[in-house]
DNA sequence: GCTACTTTGAAACATATGTGAATCCAGTGT
DNA sequence: ACACTGGATTCACATATGTTTCAAAGTAGC
């Protein structure tokens, strides 16, 4: 999946909360994530935070890079991250590699799913949807073991991705655990019945993930 | 802004509720919108609806077209629409024109703004944000007259874009009108004080729109 | 093994927004 | 003029989710 490492590329390491790209700055590189999780997010002036994308191992972390040249979302590591750094040099917003369009289109697809989630779904549906998506992505990356996978997010991270509060994420997860549709302790997710969780997520038969 | 019309291109007309692209089908064309408004949206099985993008005159209505080859969002006309139809022929998801990446990146930017809105903003903030964005886009398209522009959306459309109910959109708009930050009757929007509305929208100093 | 810090769990209470149902109103066609 | 229609407006009421606070349980550094 990953392309070869070119001479100018380099391995990069990040600790939790370190920036891969800062808000209102021109991005200097993009990253192939080898290990660890990162996210794209925006902050409001009063501290409210919304995660707009999650990057898992194997993902290409594309700088979203409009004509203005500066990012409007910050990209920050959620765990320790090991990645291949691919400098942008003096590349212009119009210069994108073949395949970039496809990747971006898929980001839009995923974001549309998130918009539906945030705009129209209940807390249970949002959580089911998110956890299902993450499990599925981990599985595709070869990082799921049977019905379980690592999920190194705090409940606060999950809240910021789903547009809920941490308190409500906690009580909703409790309820879902009680119903037996998922287990989630110490950064480890187990989904006993994929189908049941999918039903809870209010996904259509054709919806991706 | 619009490219020339090639021989295989053609003018297309749509009435409200007509599809420019259907869910779960391969898109057959994309459109340069000359006149009228359209939107991309998804429906849940119980009828809940979320608008994921709005297309205004001058916009290029890109089919979001992942590797699977089929759209997951429908594109439908909200008003009468006149557009240049550009057939995709046998173009593959990987074949995208130069500049497509940039346009898609800008869509992601805008969608990120919507995610923040839906996930973290109050009803007043969401409405201020949306109306401001639409006014600004109309202005850039040369379709604003001073502080006013056409805004041919029903309150139900606005609700489906902001993740609120039509009833709540109505009462929130009333309140905003009462405070004098906007006027909006019969599909016509007037913003007496852009700055005031921008403050209400909880946008950062660098946020686009 | 002790301290400091982060994350999870819980309870009581507050409120923004949703629901359901009428009514009103403007535009359109007959 | 009249009836239809989709949209806007209102009202009374319901509830999912937010807020605040605190305690318990992990986790990391030393």
TrEMBL record, chains A, B:
Entry keyword Isomerase: no
Record flagged with keyword Transcription regulation: yes
Every HTH crp-type domain range: 121-195
UniProt xrefs under CDD domains: CAP_ED
Key words, A-Z: DNA-binding, Transcription, Transcription regulation
Domain of life: Bacteria
PROSITE patterns in the record: HTH_CRP_2
Name this polypeptide is given: Crp/Fnr family transcriptional regulator
Organism the protein comes from: Sphingobium soli
